[in-house]
Design goal:
about 575 residues, alpha/beta, 19 helices, about 45% helix, about 20% strand, globular
């Protein structure tokens, strides 16, 4: 028998926050990401609706992390201090926008819409009364975004949170009552949704929302609320079985997600079309940018519908039969076969400039060869790296046009020794990073190579360098000390300032479109270079994300990739 939730003492203390200022929103976003990170595995374990694919906790965690990174980007942008410091409006809008861009799965997409609904109200005021109205608007907008809302889900929990504090009041009191209402509603979800009752669990998305509201309570009161009682566990519904809400029903086989740039009218037509193609349809967003989520047996048609409506990108298609719960974060375990001196199944060998970049890719599981300035690795060094990977199958990433001949020779010699080697002709480190990001040792070797090759080929690359002498280039005559912006190996921009030249190069590359900008910054570049470029992308290019890596010493001043 579940315990009745113990309500808070609703007396407001003198040290509690009475408004959600920008710093409070920043702290809330951080606590939310931390809370969902802690609960990720537990939420994955009780995920049985709408599909028992064991990823609700992971999706909520990734969504919250994207929201927090967006808030941090506002606070750490160049000049974000004094009169230019972020205010509440900046912080809540960044949190909502980051969640929209990074939303994953059914619950993550709904969470992003809840945050968007709250942001619209909190931008006008951030006291307790505004928070109460924000929760009401968030609940209504999230329910409207779901094609066929079900009771006993995150939507029910959101509605209960809003109803519990509808009469407003002081901010800490409103936050506490919202949490109390959500917690009570969560415990009732097994009686509202049959699949939850059969499994003996509460709704995973609803429990994630309780964690979000708990983080808010702790932020504004300084005290963590009492958590909801743990679910007794899933009975007989293993992750990946595909059980849906209907008795004995088998749901669609694929989950399709994408960001979409489109107008309101086009999105309304899209909703109708996708609703006929599958279920679990959620379309959230606005102002020209939407996050689309649907379960369907025809993922191609779902993507085509997005193309007809506008410009879809960051398309992710997951086959439910192949999904399993993600492992908990932690240090990689030693491969027992490697410990016994046996060959591992597969490895990646990558040539990389700079100690920092080599270390980053090594953490991702690659055997790395560092390219030192003026000393490219020879074929023997590449062959030694392939051998040291100690694997039956090896993917080789030279990451430099000038290394392709040496890499091809090393691959042939390794094949003669019985090692299966695939050489992907990556021409820059950012292409190698893109390839490594989609590497999956669990799939067939050929499929893995095709996916990595496609990711590398879809990444345009640029490099900034400083001219050592006067010379003639494709962009004109440069002088010693000029900053050269090379796009795809050719000098495209000649400038005097590294930051200004980098902005110009970025603009030229993004004219052809893009979804993700990768910046690889070496030691010795101007302070704040990466922050300045991230802010430039954020201001000028809708729905383009930026990720930054530090290459350390031995790399060009700046490498740029656009996927």
């Amino acid at each position: 028998m579940s315990r009745a939730p113990q309500p808070f003492d609703h007396t407001v203390r003198s040290d509690e926050r009475l408004v959600l200022d920008a710093g409070t929103v920043r702290a809330w976003s951080a606590r939310t990401a931390e809370a969902l990170g802690r609960e990720r595995a537990a939420l994955d374990a009780i995920n049985v609706f709408p599909v028992a694919d064991g990823d609700t906790g992971t999706n909520l965690c990734l969504t919250a992390d994207a929201a927090h990174r967006a808030v941090e980007a506002v606070f750490t942008a160049p000049g974000a201090s004094g009169d230019s410091a972020p205010d509440t409006t900046d912080a809540v809008r960044a949190m909502a926008h980051g969640a929209l861009l990074g939303a994953r799965g059914n619950s993550g997409t709904i969470l992003s819409q809840l945050l968007r609904g709250m942001a619209g109200v909190l931008a006008d005021g951030a006291d307790g009364d505004h928070l109460a109205r924000a929760l009401a608007v968030a609940s209504a907008s999230a329910r409207a975004a779901v094609a066929h809302p079900e009771e006993g889900t995150i939507l029910t929990v959101a509605a209960a949170a809003a109803a519990s504090c509808a009469d407003g009041g002081a901010l800490p009191d409103v936050a506490r009552r919202a949490y109390d209402g959500a917690r009570t509603a969560l415990e009732a979800t097994p009686g509202q949704l049959a699949v939850l009752g059969r499994a003996g669990v509460v709704d995973a998305g609803g429990q994630g929302l309780v964690a979000v509201l708990g983080a808010l309570v702790e932020t504004v009161t300084g005290r963590a609320p009492e958590p909801p009682p743990a679910s007794p566990g899933v009975r007989g519904v293993p992750a990946g079985t595909g059980e849906t809400c209907g008795p004995g029903a088998q749901g669609p086989g694929h989950e399709v997600l994408y960001l979409l740039e489109a107008g309101d009218d086009a999105v309304e037509l899209l909703r109708a079309r996708l609703d006929a193609l599958g279920d679990s349809l959620v379309v959230v967003g606005g102002d020209g940018l939407w996050n689309v989520h649907v379960h369907t047996d025809d993922p191609g048609a779902a993507v085509e519908a997005g193309i007809e409506a506008g410009r879809p990108h960051r398309i992710r298609i997951t086959h439910f039969a192949s999904t399993t719960a993600a492992p908990a974060p932690g240090p990689p375990a030693e491969d027992p076969a490697h410990a016994r001196g046996e060959r591992a199944a597969r490895a990646v060998v990558a040539v990389l400039p700079g100690e920092g970049l080599a270390g980053l890719c090594a953490e991702a599981g690659a055997t790395t060869v560092q390219a030192r300035p003026g000393e490219p690795p020879a074929g023997d060094e590449l062959l030694a790296a392939v051998r040291s990977a100690h694997a039956r199958e090896v993917v080789l990433l030279p990451n430099d046009t000038d290394l392709r001949a040496a890499a091809a020779t090393a691959a042939e010699r390794a094949r003669a020794e019985g090692i299966r080697v695939a050489l992907i002709p990556t021409r820059a480190a950012v292409q190698g990073i893109a390839a490594l990001a989609v590497h999956e040792p669990g799939r067939s070797f050929d499929e893995d190579v095709v996916a990595m090759t496609a990711a590398a080929g879809a990444t345009r690359y640029a490099e900034l360098a400083v001219a050592e002498r006067q010379s003639f280039t494709s962009a004109g005559v440069c002088q010693a000390g000029d900053v050269l912006g090379l796009i795809e190996g050719d000098v495209a921009v000649i400038g005097q300032d590294l930051t200004d030249t980098a902005r110009t190069v970025l603009d030229r590359m993004l004219q052809a479109g893009g979804e993700l900008v990768t910046l690889v910054v070496a030691d010795g570049t101007p302070p704040g270079l990466a922050d300045t470029l991230e802010a430039h992308v954020r201001r000028g290019y809708l729905a383009v994300d930026t990720v930054t890596y530090h290459a350390g010493e031995g790399a060009p001043p700046l490498l740029i990739g656009v996927e």
